[in-house]
Write a structure and sequence with these properties.
The complex is a heterodimer of chains A (about 700) and B (about 350). With about 700 residues, chain A is α/β, with parallel strands linked by helices. Chain A has 27 helices and 15 strands. A seven-stranded mixed β-sheet of chain B has the order 2-3-4-5-6-1-7, sandwiched between helices. The relative contact order of chain B is 0.09. Classes of the chains: A alpha/beta (about 700), B alpha/beta (about 350).
Chain lengths: ~700, ~350
């Protein structure tokens, strides 16, 4: 600090109004004069206009920041002095590629640990014996041979689909919209796709190992097919058709080379939207049978793994892992970022890992200044998140009118206008999520929410009418904010505790609604035409589906065979099916109705008390099918139901009829015999999972004797 | 086995049980072998479609029942491919405009042109040769203004070999020119007794067992059911089938009606209770979750609003707030149909209803 700033100082020239004389201990006499008030030359840094309070945190932050900037600069200077090319200024790869994880452990999980484990589990289950060329379909192989990974953009779906198979010793072949679906001249698009997929699935990559130890060793790796961006690809229909055929095991080739195709390589499909229904017919005109949109047809063929945004993940560590990942990258790039910057970046990018890394690189290039202000203004527009924040803030130091004018300035002419225009949907959603809290903190009155509803109506209805859209897009909408501000501004700090309304409810709600809508559409279309006509325009969701649900899911007990058979009759009459799928939460197979009525019709937490009914129904339906005597039909009852039967039979439920099982295993039995003549064949053993998901889980090796007992 | 709504659906005009005068008129109409364009309207579950099909049956014979689902492909001006389902028989086709979204104008125009340009060829029928084909348009009130405007010209131009039957719930959305070009047929709700009779008939045919043999008690039980279902015949039949599926013998108690409330109705009644009990921001926040839950289960927002209002009215009894609430609800109903974010308006209604109840 400058000496002049102290209140007392030795005068260098005359002109003091009042002087004091001080005698020091050594006898020297000093003339001191009081410094006139106008001479105050206080450093204004960190002292607010009112001149009373010093904002210590801000000061600290500034110090930290300058320190960091200095370090960064020093670092760059040092690097250039040494002649080393600084990685920051001339990095030729974008960081998202540079830091793309190569293995499972490098992955930034960001709340998707479970999904990743699920994928890995599926891949390891998918044993591919790579020495045995004409591979038989191992009975133990995963139930569904296609994996469907879905979730929002930028959270590592593609990365996982590449890194995990590589780790599981597969060679990844990717098909995506960008390159792989150009048609080969002279061949139709559908045929091209078919050719490419089949080629990818039948070849083994042979590559000379570059490893120093065994330079000349040849390694063969089976391929894993990754189909990216399936839902948005314009050929999704054709791709799904090929996958359908392959998973059913169609006959390939013609003439002599004819053989049955067994899908014995993992296929991973990636989609953003599980319920996409953008293009393509849902009916086949020739057969008159409904086959649904591509995604709808794909869903039953696949194990699905859902990736979620870290924001929506339940565990608190999700965001932390993402932050750690970013910090790690920053330290790799010798970039000093504070933890605050990192969390700012994460919140701005909404948990999108790729966007976060891009963001980091963008600021890394500019010498490492990522203060919260600059990071929120990548395109010199305040981020919507901050707009929402500001809407509920009031500066307590100035009057209401001044505050209001500031807001008005900001929204009508200032940079706020552009932001509002760009993201008004997000802003309004954010405000809507938070305004109740603002009211409850300030004064608990319901008059304000009531008044607000008029303004929300203005926003919603007028924005929706097409003529008003252009006019409204950015100039008038901001009025809603001003109103919001004038109603709800508060000097109190909102921290989200006062009223428990999570940020993601809106998203979760719309997601659920989409899923339920898909279910209802399939109910409508599966139901026989006569019933469909009879029901007509009655509200399906409100009346028809709940009643149908109550008709099928009867109260009562298992012993009530009459009711079960009644329900089974109804299920067949309505054209519904039962199928089993693997439930990742419990680790068991669950039987479910297709379409799943109870998802739509039941509210609250699904305890699923009607499990007995479903299994009873499954038995009943299986019995019916065998009674019809069609062996093919018996096989159509998903083989997996057999497994559930087996398991339930161990729990003391009466044994299902044994005839089907004989047929099924008889089929498998033929193959080993034929192959064993070659000598290279290891006898296929039947594995039975026993109590999977429980503490006494075993994989039992059982032979024919046990099965016949 | 099929659902009772399908199984006991009258196929001919003669089998129709109520609204005899309308049936007679329709019969007279079909006897002439020709009819003008029709606009059939009335509440759901009153029997509009049943009557339309019975009339078609009367005119064309049983061939109308040979239904199949067709897919029509259609390319819009922006070169997008559009597909929609058409239910058709040799003599008619049926479309639902809500399948087509915004393109309903082009689709309808094109479809009608298509139908009109192919003349009906019928060598087999011994009956009077019909030169025309019938197009049934469901939910005609959902047609956009554009589509309706396009219809009015087409209706006249191709009247030589097409006939339109528009089916809708209310005619308030239908533009006057169309109203004037069609013969309006209103199918009102059946009375409670008429529904009761039908349910009784079904009960006899299906041999539904009741725990009492007193026909009086059974009748009052069925009437009660009809009343609970809002005099909606279809809903009463579905509900009756559900009850009889769930109980082998249906217990009839004297005072309480059939115990069949749906989950979402319980939730809405809970919302009404909460509104009446405590009016605070905390309640509002709690109710928001409930609304989200309902919307996630695809319960249409308008139905939520309506049910909530009726619940409130019922619980308030004879109070002078009721008119105010009804006014509010009608306001918000309009907003629901104009806007898209249902949650805003549902919460807005709740907040306003709370304010109205406070004062």
């Amino acid at each position: 600090m400058d000496f002049r700033q102290s209140l007392l100082h030795v005068p260098t020239e005359g002109g003091c109004r009042r002087t004091d004389t001080v005698e020091l201990f050594n006898g020297k006499v000093l003339e001191l004069c009081r410094k006139p008030p106008s001479d105050f030359l206080l450093d204004t840094v960190g002292i607010s206009k009112e001149g009373s309070v010093i904002d210590i945190p801000q000061l600290l932050q500034e110090i930290e920041e300058t320190d960091r900037r200095r370090k960064n600069r020093a670092h760059i200077a040092e690097l250039s002095k040494e002649g080393v090319i600084p990685s920051i200024s001339i990095s030729d790869t974008i960081w998202t590629e540079k830091y793309r994880p190569r293995s499972y452990l490098q992955m930034c999980t960001a709340g998707n640990d479970k999904a990743l484990r699920q994928m890995m589990h599926w891949l390891t289950l998918f044993r591919v014996s790579d020495d045995d060329k004409p591979e038989p379909d191992i009975p133990d192989r995963v139930h569904k041979k296609i994996l469907l990974v879905h979730g929002p953009a930028g959270i590592g779906k593609t990365t996982a689909a590449h890194a995990l198979p590589r780790q599981a010793r597969y060679n990844v072949v990717e098909l995506n919209a960008a390159t792989s679906f150009d048609s080969i001249p002279g061949v139709s698009v559908a045929a091209t796709i078919r050719l490419r997929i089949v080629n990818a699935l039948t070849m083994n990559q042979i590559n000379t190992s570059t490893n120093k130890n065994n330079r000349n060793m040849m390694t063969t790796r089976p391929t894993c097919l990754v189909i990216d961006e399936l839902d948005t690809s314009i050929h999704s229909n054709e791709i799904v058709r090929v996958l359908e055929q392959l998973s059913k095991g169609t006959v390939l080739g013609n003439g002599k080379s004819k053989r049955k195709f067994v899908l014995n390589r993992p296929v991973i499909c990636i989609a953003n939207d599980l319920y996409a229904n953008n293009n393509g017919p849902t009916f086949s005109s020739s057969t008159g049978r409904r086959f649904g949109s591509p995604m709808e047809r794909l869903r039953p063929l696949c194990e699905t793994v859902a990736f979620k945004r870290p924001m929506t993940a339940k565990s608190g560590t999700a965001i932390k892992t993402l932050k750690d990942h970013l910090t790690h990258i920053a330290s790799q790039e010798h970039l000093e970022v504070s933890s605050r910057d990192v969390s700012d970046i994460v919140s701005i990018c909404d948990g999108d890992i790729r966007a976060c890394i891009n963001h980091l690189q963008f600021h890394g290039g500019s010498g490492g200044n990522t203060s919260s202000n600059s990071s929120s203004t990548i395109d010199s527009v305040p981020h919507w998140f901050h707009v929402v924040d500001d809407t509920f803030k009031r500066d307590p130091k100035v009057t209401r009118a001044v505050n209001f004018n500031r807001m008005l300035q900001f929204y009508t002419t200032g940079s706020g206008r552009a932001s509002v225009g760009a993201a008004h949907g997000k802003i309004i959603r954010g405000c809507f999520q938070r305004y109740l809290e603002a009211v409850s903190v300030d004064e608990d009155t319901i008059v304000k929410p009531a008044r607000l509803s008029e303004w929300l109506e203005f926003y919603d209805c007028y924005l929706n009418s097409s003529t008003a859209q252009i006019m409204l897009s950015d100039s008038y909408v901001s009025i809603v904010w001003l109103k919001l501000w004038s109603l709800f501004n508060t000097s109190a700090k909102l921290n989200g505790d006062a009223i428990a309304s999570s940020r993601t409810t809106d998203f979760a709600c719309s997601e659920d609604a989409r899923r339920n809508n898909a279910i209802i559409t399939s109910v409508r279309e599966q139901i026989p035409l006569g019933v469909r006509l009879a029901i007509g325009s009655e509200p399906w969701t409100a009346i028809v589906v709940p009643l149908l649900y109550q008709m099928v899911y009867l109260p009562g007990s298992e012993r009530d065979t009459e009711q079960v058979s009644q329900a089974a009759q109804l299920v067949t009459a309505l054209g519904f099916e039962l199928s089993t799928r693997y439930d990742p939460d419990t680790g068991r197979d669950v039987t479910a109705m297709v379409p799943d009525l109870d998802l739509v019709a039941t509210f609250g937490v699904r305890s699923n008390p009607k499990r007995w009914l479903l299994s009873a129904l499954a038995r009943e339906l299986a019995k019916r099918l065998t009674a019809e005597g069609a062996a093919a039909a018996a096989a159509a009852v998903k083989e997996k139901t057999e497994v559930t039967h087996k398991r339930t039979s161990e729990n003391g439920v009466p044994q299902p009829p044994k005839r089907q099982r004989v047929e099924m295993f008889g089929l498998n039995n033929n193959r080993p015999v034929a192959n064993s003549t070659k000598g290279s064949f290891k006898p296929a053993r039947t594995w039975v999972k026993y109590h999977e998901g429980f503490s006494n889980a075993v994989r039992k090796n059982i032979g024919w004797e046990e099965l016949w007992k | 086995m099929s659902l009772w709504v399908d199984k006991y659906r009258p196929k001919t005009l003669a089998q129709l049980s109520y609204h005899d005068r309308i049936s007679q008129n329709l019969k007279a109409l079909s006897a002439s072998g020709d009819f003008p364009h029709l606009l059939v309207y009335g509440p759901t579950g009153a029997g509009k479609k049943t009557r339309v099909y019975a009339t078609l049956q009367e005119i064309f014979g049983s061939a109308v029942e040979r239904l199949k689902i067709d897919v029509k492909t259609f390319t819009t001006s922006s070169n997008r491919k559009l597909e929609f389902n058409v239910i058709s028989s040799p003599y008619h086709l049926e479309i639902t405009p809500s399948d087509m979204g915004n393109n309903d104008r082009v689709v309808i125009q094109d479809l009608l042109k298509d139908v009109a340009s192919t003349e009906q060829v019928d060598f087999t029928s011994s009956k009077v040769k019909h030169r025309f084909k019938v197009v049934v348009i469901n939910e005609a009130d959902c047609l956009s203004r554009d589509a309706q405007a396009a219809l009015r010209r087409t209706m006249e131009k191709y009247s030589a070999n097409t006939r339109l039957i528009l089916v809708c719930n209310s005619i308030s959305n239908i533009i006057p020119p169309i109203k004037s070009r069609t013969l309006l047929v209103r199918i009102p709700k059946p009375t409670i007794e008429e529904i009761g009779d039908i349910l009784n008939m079904v009960a006899k045919k299906e041999q539904v067992k009741f725990n009492s043999n007193d026909p009086q008690a059974i009748t009052s039980f069925l009437n009660n059911l009809a009343e609970k279902s809002d005099r909606n015949l279809r809903r009463s039949l579905l509900a009756f089938e559900t009850i009889s599926m769930q109980n082998e013998t249906i217990p009839i108690t004297n005072n309480s009606g059939p115990q069949l409330t749906l989950d979402w109705e319980i939730i809405i009644s809970g919302i009404a209770d909460a509104v009446l009990k405590s009016r605070s921001v905390a309640t509002l926040a709690k109710l928001r979750d409930a609304y989200y839950e309902l919307l996630a289960h695809c319960i249409p927002a308008k139905i939520i609003l309506k049910t909530l209002l009726f619940n409130l009215i019922e619980k308030l009894g004879d109070s002078n707030v009721v008119p105010k609430l009804v006014e509010l609800a009608s306001d918000y109903d309009e907003r629901l149909s104009l806007g898209q974010k249902s949650i805003f308006h549902l919460e807005g209604f709740t907040a306003n209803a709370m304010v109205a109840l406070e004062s």
